[in-house]
Amino acid sequence: MKALFAKGITSIIEANTSLEDYAEWQKIYAAHGDELPRAAVQISWPGLEVLQKYGHQTGEGDAHLRLGAIKVFVDGGFTGPAAYTIEPYKNQGEYRGKLTRTPEEFYTIFRDAHRLGWQLAFAYDR
């Protein structure tokens, strides 16, 4: 990551990791943070109980490393086609893609993350 500075890159986002992996980022940045680009780390939704026990939220950290948003995968993306769309896919009958969760499950995740002080980031599934 030190080589990123030579390319003019001064900050990065890790767009999908776990709370356990964030702990590794913290160790690395505690030892070498002044030598590395600023980083924000987005955490994949770990579940309400895990997030409540964790006790932290988006924005915590320091000038070098901070917690980013909770990453929520919404649909299957456009590589299938699997992205969830308003209109059906051309020549696919009524098929509109596939959500990774029900709308009710999404609502619960969004509500719970918000109540715990987390921002949300949405993406298609890999």
Write the layout of secondary structure elements.
Elements: E1 11-17, H1 19-32, E2 38-44, H2 48-54, E3 65-75, H3 103-115, E4 120-124
Parallel strand pairs: 1-2, 2-3, 3-4
Care to describe what's here?
- The chain is α/β, with parallel strands linked by helices and 126 residues long.
- Helix content is 27%, strand content 24%.
- It has three helices and four strands; from the N terminus they run βαβαβαβ.
- It has a four-stranded parallel sheet, covered by helices on one side.
- The model has no long low-confidence stretch (mean pLDDT 92).
Main features:
126 residues; alpha/beta; TIM Barrel; 4-stranded parallel beta sheet; 4 strands; 24% strand
Give the structure's gist in a few sentences.
The chain has 126 residues and is of the alpha/beta class. Strands 1-2-3-4 form a four-stranded parallel sheet, with helices on one face.
| Strand order, largest beta sheet | 1-2-3-4
**Which geometry do the CA atoms define?**
flat
- Helix-strand makeup class: alpha/beta
SSE succession:
EHEHEHE
Give the radius of gyration: 18 Å
Please tally the helical runs, counting DSSP H or I stretches of 4 or more residues: 3
Q: State the low-pLDDT regions, or none.
A: none
CATH architecture: Alpha-Beta Barrel
Strand content: 15-25%
Largest sheet, in brief, is:
4 strands, parallel
